[in-house]
Amino acid sequence: MTLYRMALRQIFVSWLVWAIVIVLGVATVVSAAPAVAHSDVLAGLVQRLPSLVRGLLGGPLLLKRPVDGYLYVKLVMYLPLLVGIFTGFQASSLLARDRDHRRLDFLLSLPVTRRRLLLVRLGALVTAQAAMWAVVILALCGFMHQEGLQVDTAGYVLVGYSGFLVTLATGSIALWASAGARDYGAALRWGLGAAAVPFVYDLSVRIATTAHGWLYILPYGYYDPPQLLLTHAFPWLATAVLVVASGLLTYAAVHTFEQREV
Amino acid sequence: MAAAIEANQLRKVYPNGHGVFGIDLSIPRGEVFGFLGPNGAGKTTTIRALLGLTHLTGGTASVLGHDAVQDSLGVRRVTGYLPGDPALYDAMTGSEHLQLALELRGERDRRHALEVAERLGVELHRKVRQLSRGNRQKVAILLALAHDPEVLILDEPTTGLDPLAQDAFRGLLMDMRARGKTIFFSSHVLPEVEGVADRVGIIREGRLVEVNTVDALRRSHLKEVRVRYEGALPDLAQVTGVRGLEAKGAQARFHIAGDTAPLFRLLAEKPPADITITDPSLEEVFRTYYGGEPS
């Protein structure tokens, strides 16, 4: 428990800064929504867009629910990237920072396995990440309510849940990459790179979605906020794929960490 | 009874070719073993290999029957380890470090730890970043001793400690020895090893070149002899085993190695007015492995 609390404490300051920045961003975007998201204006804009761009921006949502569509384009679309950067940064730091400062020597001189050390720290990161999504979705719904907008709480909870799964996988990629990195700097580069991958992938899949629907079998494709908000369908497949992917990547990270010298 | 610490042909070779090459060690329970060698000789690599903190290239190591590779966790459970130049968490206090260490060891009783802290004068409630180098070292020593381990492995333990803290630390080691604990410690402060260790091992370029008691090591090496005659000096240079002869008037200083019988025959034939024979200090013995014979 002390190991877990210690890991949480190491993350806390960074978590707080990121949470404040994201919540401020949410407040700013939501406060503009009533003035900007007029259905007729947006509908006219969407109709004039090329189909690729319309897909990219979640066109059907913009047409059917302009406010949510507007919030998606201006905010929700970037949340996995923002939380993903936080997660990638923290996941990269889980081992590499202590390794660089030779503190792993102290920890590993105690009767604790490398596997347990890594998993406890990952557990703390998952907690922090879940808390981050909870705060962001609560803030989003709260500010929408305050602005007198109709709030699709269930839909946004699903969006937050899916975003959490995506950033869980992002963190696992970063953890795996950083477990084998030669130093903290290299680990950070890998971690931040990992955070950008799902975002870039999402854009490319969205552009190609009609012609290459099969790409949605891949993990990030199932994180589709416009669809979640429109259908409220629980993303079972995304859950399965992303949880399995995160598990495999974590297993790979543990294996890499167990094999390398500290 | 199995040895407390055992290494057979222990081998760890780094990609740059450095490391340790075929270390054989057997340290019985209750012994204080000093491990000597200059920087880069392989002391820390050997210690890390004993604890299972590094992947061995070959050989085996065990502590109280726990294999360092197969059961590294078991080794660390029965061992207290002080790393050389230990790195702690700046934002945590000594007390928080202690809580972490005891919790991971499943140790609920803090009395022994608090007694050690008091004897060392550890500032438990200050953050590590606020502590001086010596006080950080005290925290690290406390963490190694907190659970009253059967085996204590210390890498350069007195680094940064002031003389009073060194005395307190030596007192703790003596108490542990009296209670039958096994202590393995590396150092380059040779008089310190001399005063505490039952046996010493000398490592050079990754190879253990000598393991013996401090007394035996001294006896097996050059003795310093000073003689003073009333009249002229006898021809000491012709005596077998005499080295580094420095004669000045009726006084002479030299070292004698190996068989001392020829020297004593001469001294019996021509007795000096005064004679002093001293064993070399451990430092002088150590230097013979690294810098040739003492002059």
Q: Give the biggest beta sheet of chain A.
A: none
Quickly name the level 1 CATH class of the largest domain in chain B.
Alpha Beta
Average pLDDT taken over every residue of chain A? 82
3D shape of chain B? elongated
Plain-language structure description:
The complex is a heterodimer of chains A (262) and B (295). By secondary structure, chain A is an all-alpha fold. Chain A has one domain (2-259). Helix content of chain A is 80%, strand content 0%. Chain A has helices at 2-36, 39-48, 51-56, 59-64, 66-74, 79-100, 103-108, 114-146, 153-179, 184-207, 225-231, 236-259. In chain A, helix 1 (2-36) runs antiparallel to helix 6 (79-100). Chain B has 295 residues and is an alpha/beta fold. In chain B, 33% of the residues lie in helices and 28% in strands. Chain B is elongated, with a radius of gyration of 23 Å.
Quickly list its features:
heterodimer, A: 262 residues, mainly alpha, 0% strand, B: 295 residues, alpha/beta, Rossmann fold, Alpha-Beta Plaits, six-stranded mixed β-sheet, four-stranded antiparallel β-sheet, 14 strands, 33% helix, 28% strand
Topology:
The complex is a heterodimer of chains A (262) and B (295).
Chain A: H1 2-36, H2 39-48, H3 51-56, H4 59-64, H5 66-74, H6 79-100, H7 103-108, H8 114-146, H9 153-179, H10 184-207, H11 225-231, H12 236-259
Helix pairs in contact in A: 1-5, 1-6, 1-8, 6-8, 6-9, 6-10, 8-9, 8-12, 9-10, 9-11, 9-12
Chain B: E1 5-13, E2 19-27, E3 32-36, H1 43-50, E4 58-63, E5 66-67, H2 72-78, E6 79-82, H3 94-104, H4 111-120, H5 133-145, E7 151-155, H6 163-178, E8 182-187, H7 190-196, E9 199-204, E10 207-213, H8 214-219, E11 223-228, E12 242-248, E13 251-256, H9 261-269, E14 274-278, H10 282-291
Parallel strand pairs in B: 3-8, 3-9, 6-7, 7-8
Antiparallel strand pairs in B: 1-2, 1-4, 4-5, 9-10, 11-13, 11-14, 12-13
Helix pairs in contact in B: 3-5, 4-5
